[in-house]
Design a protein that fits this description.
- The protein is α/β, with parallel strands linked by helices.
- The chain has one domain: SGNH hydrolase (Rossmann fold).
- The chain is 50% helix and 16% strand.
- α4 runs parallel beside α5.
- The two termini are 17 Å apart.
Amino acid sequence: MSRDTRICFVGDSFVAGVGDPTALGWAGRLVADAHACGHPVTAYNLGVRRQSSTEIRARWLAECLQRFPDDVDARVVFSFGVNDTMVENGRPRVDAADSVANLTALLAEAADRDWPALVVAPPPIDDDEHNARTAALDARFADLCATAAVPYVRTHQPLGTDPVWRHEVRIGDGAHPGAGGYTVLADLIRAAWREWLAR
């Protein structure tokens, strides 16, 4: 009998798969990959458009607790940051130090409950200045996850040079890709995802 694995994908509009006409996004593609590899999972997409890490931190635990009974293999995938680095009223919506503090708290709370975590980097959009801020945050997230021994998938840089991602973001709303871009993103995450699920 296979283990009862349940996974919450927690984050923003990229987690939700906004812009993908197939409605799969990268999370749905990874869930399909798990099933294809003989590892069925129950997945919950908890991506909310425009939410920052501060807003995600405020809601995530209550939402996951409703979906994780005590007797299951409960896991969490976190991905956010693009909204944190968005400039509003002359400054980023969330200071980088606060973004790092929020991720630190999320990982600590997950560890306290023995929920393995996987973190996916915030992706680039069609705005070079915004991307520079997000890339800096990505580096800080990577350092944090290395210290916490949590797998972190650095997708920001490869997506920034990927022609499919860049084209679909540009012809879309300037931030979100279509199905092709989400396929590229899922492909970048797949190896780490499979390794993480096998633990």
